[in-house]
Amino acid sequence: MRFVLSPAALAGSCSRHPWRVVAAWAVVLLGALALVGGFLGDSLTTDADLTGNPESIRAERLLEERLRGETPIREVVIVRSDTLTVDNPEFAAFVARLGEDLRALGPEVLSGGTSYYVTGDESLVSADRHTTLVPLVMTGDYEEAAAAVGAVLDVTRAAGADPRFDVLQNGLASVGKDFERVSQNDLKTGEVYGLVAALVILVLVFGALVAALVPVLLALVAIAVALGAVALIGQATPLSFFVVNMSVGMGLALGIDYSLFIVSRFREERARGDEKLAAIRVVGATASRAVLFSGGTFVLALLGMLLVPTTVMRSLAAGAILVGIASVVVVLTLLPAVLALLGDRVNALRLPFVQRRLTGGAEGRFWAAIARAVMRRPVLSLLLSAGVLLAATVPAFQLQTGTAGVSTLPPDLPSRQAFDVLDHEFQAGRIAPVEVVVDGDAGSAEVEAAIERLETALAGEPSFGEAVVEANDGGDLTLVSIPLAGDPNADAAAEVVRALRDEAIPAAFEGVDAEVLVGGVTAKNSDFFDVTDRYRPIVFAFVLAFSFLLLTVAFRSIVVPAKAIALNLLSVGAAYGLLVLVFQKGYLTDLLGFQQVESVEAWLPLFLFSVLFGLSMDYHVFLLSRIRERYDETGDNAGAVAFGIGSTARLITGAALIMVAVFSGFALGELVIFQQMGFGLAVALFLDATVIRSVLVPASMRLLGRWNWYLPHWLRWLPRAGIEGSR
Q1: How far is Cα 346 from Cα 358, in angstroms, rounded to an integer?
Q2: Hey, how many other C-beta atoms are within 10 angstroms of the C-beta on 473?
Q3: Bridge-partner residues for 471, per DSSP?
Q4: Cα–Cα distance between 315 and 75 in angstroms, integer?
Q5: What is the pLDDT of residues 507-533, one digit of tens each?
Q6: Selection from 508, 541, 550 nearest residue 610 by Cα
Q7: Which domains does the chain possess?
Q8: 727: confidence class by pLDDT, cuts 50, 70, 90
């Protein structure tokens, strides 16, 4: 039985009718750009939610149904003066004018607000009486508040022009707006750096400017199409704004890499003397098939992330999957048409010195020589290289997962400055308090006594502020709002919530006929961490099983996929360990320009694992297919390994450098989220393309010999799926 993964007919058809294909793609591109311009902004959200039914969601639902309706989106305006106190009439007049300007925004923006001068609440005044808080409640849900908070910020910025006062603002909507703005700036930084670096590498690989530009342009087409799909899907279900960063980063890496493989093979076939259309058909039967297999592997690896019931994980997966599919479709259809139109003009604007040096096979001979040296001492090479990666993996056992809060924003942002004032002079957690929901008879003596016991237990704890108790009109639900000290998104806050759930509440409500749930932003974060921890082994098993199955079919061996998975696990483990050393422990953070934080983003280990398995399979597929092809021809295991490494050296080195450059560009951003993601991906791919490819692969294949291609008799029924085919 022979099963052929070949888009050769598609490549041939597209190359025979190139203008039709280009015209069709022009229509698709214009449609995608229209969707992006008209709908993408409305499709994105800075909110992160859990799609399952954890405790925090159940608590929120009870409050919405039986107490207050939609969860209030709180903002707080901070008014501070170095020379005046709140008791000064000028201070009072300034706050009164600010309140009038805010009320003038209307009920469609603000549904409530107060001040010290209205309530006399001393908790709204700092100890030195130079600062006061103006609490606000935004109208509508989070999406509506995020859209309207700009008007509030305009008022507070205008008030801050008075030299006597500093006016700052903090809250869920304003912090989300700052996160989105910094994310967009990081995206621009990553795009510029990644594109420039990728273009330079492509020029060095191809030695011609036109050949270097083609992969970049096709990658941009794939990104635009993927973002158009994101805009469309977002009309049905809002996606996290991080989906744009994922689509752009993955689109640059995948689109350029896939085009690199195909353009290189086309130039190789033309150099052999094949006529243009014949060369394109050969590319379709060889390199395009490998791209199809690699892209399919990447998409399957990312499908595992869709299993995790969180909007952030599913948004990240959706962005990567959509741009992966778009990249494959673009290079399988549009690229053959472009090559048919360009022909040998793809080699235009050559750089003679670079061209001579690269086409002379220096890189291939270099990597082949390394492979032969490794295979002369395979045991020593294997132990040393594996030992280094295992040593780098050791810190991963201290991996702490969390989420980036406002305290990780750049210190010059207004919302971060406002947080610092709140944290120093008040309680920053008052904007997003812990909400203890008691579902039971609010007027019963046992419920009232339990709430008193809880308040007494928390009264001496520095992590908590003064609790506020509120019952609904029906008398069957009680809300105990408890502000937290510090950043409500910090790891310490999540630990406080866990202790509240596991210790304080069970002790206070023991024997009470009521269900007690803990909600609020911090509780939701804690539930998110628990969900990612619970689903991590499920996603790992999903990705590993599919990777093993695909590689077994591809190479008709159970040893090759088992070895590939083991090597990938080494590079992933090393990436985890280096993330801990750099971001949690602080090693080299000043040199690299990164921010030391308490934890690694909770979604990142799952994301890195899935993405790295998908991306690293590109190298393994291209490398192992060449090795297997040579081994079948000669029967010489060591010679086949050296030939495979040498013959794929330029492409794999170039592809790896492009991916490392693209992800390094995103690591240059200000958000620690993207610093961690970019660094983790870049380090793992660098290790995979160097230590794994040049040392561990040849050493292990030399030691295993013929056993590399072992397939049990009971699996001989598996189809023969030629990955790179034949000319």
Answers
A1: 17
A2: 8
A3: 478
A4: 27
A5: 989 888 889 999 888 888 888 888 888
A6: 541
A7: 2-45+177-404+526-722 (1.20.1640.10), 68-164 (3.30.70), 433-519 (3.30.70.100)
A8: low
